[in-house]
From TrEMBL:
InterPro entries according to UniProt: PPR_At4g14850-like_plant, PPR_rpt, TPR-like_helical_dom_sf
Keywords in alphabetical order: Repeat
Gene3D superfamilies: Tetratricopeptide repeat domain
A GO term for molecular function: RNA binding
Protein name, entry field: Pentacotripeptide-repeat region of PRORP domain-containing protein
Pfam families attached to this UniProt entry: PPR
PPR repeat boundaries on the chain: 35-69
Protein source organism: Selaginella moellendorffii (Spikemoss)
Any GO BP: RNA modification
Length: 181
């Protein structure tokens, strides 16, 4: 394991997916020549656990080792920030990269979880060159967050935008109706 990066990285990923972060970290620490894939596997694992502070520590370690975030690692970090409530850390990271559509989905989800619904609406409204399918996903995320936070005002905006995209979107009707519960 110490000599085979593929085996080591696979074990890190395996233990992370099983929720055994102690074992994942033990294997990670034994990998002799770590590559980005091993770092990303551990970042994803801690992110799934909501351990955003440990993810940030890993980012520092990656930088010290000379690694730069790739798209997959960045997406995992933003997800970890979202699950850990680290809004400002995610915003800072987001500002440092050229965002792709996948990052927008993750950041809008983060804003929704943090009850930053107006910021989420502003972000989705300002996105250019996004497919209608992706816009539907983004507006549904906002509508779901509005339901969760009982924000009917922003929920109405999201629902209207969804109806403009697809008036037969049954998920939008269900989410909007459940906002009144």
């Amino acid at each position: 394991m110490e000599e085979s990066l593929t085996v080591g990285t696979s074990l890190v990923d395996f233990y992370c997916k099983c929720g055994s972060m102690v074992d994942a970290r033990l294997v990670f620490d034994k990998i002799f020549a770590k590559e980005l894939a091993a770092w990303t596997a551990l970042v994803e694992g801690y992110g799934r656990q909501g351990s955003s502070k440990l993810v940030m520590e890993l980012l520092c370690g990656m930088e010290e080792e000379g690694f730069r975030l790739d798209a997959k690692t960045l997406a995992s970090v933003i997800t970890a920030c979202s699950h850990g409530g680290e809004l400002e850390a995610a915003r800072k990271l987001f500002a440092e990269v050229i965002p792709s559509q996948d990052y927008f989905v993750r950041l809008v989800d983060l804003l929704g979880r943090a009850n930053e619904l107006n910021a989420a609406v502003d972000m989705v409204s300002s996105v250019e060159s996004v497919s209608n399918v992706k816009l539907v996903v983004l507006w549904r995320i906002i509508l779901d967050a509005c339901r969760r936070w009982k924000n009917l005002e922003v929920g109405k905006v999201a629902f209207k935008r969804l109806m403009d995209l697809d008036e037969f979107d049954s998920a939008a009707y269900v989410l909007f109706a459940s906002s009144y519960d």
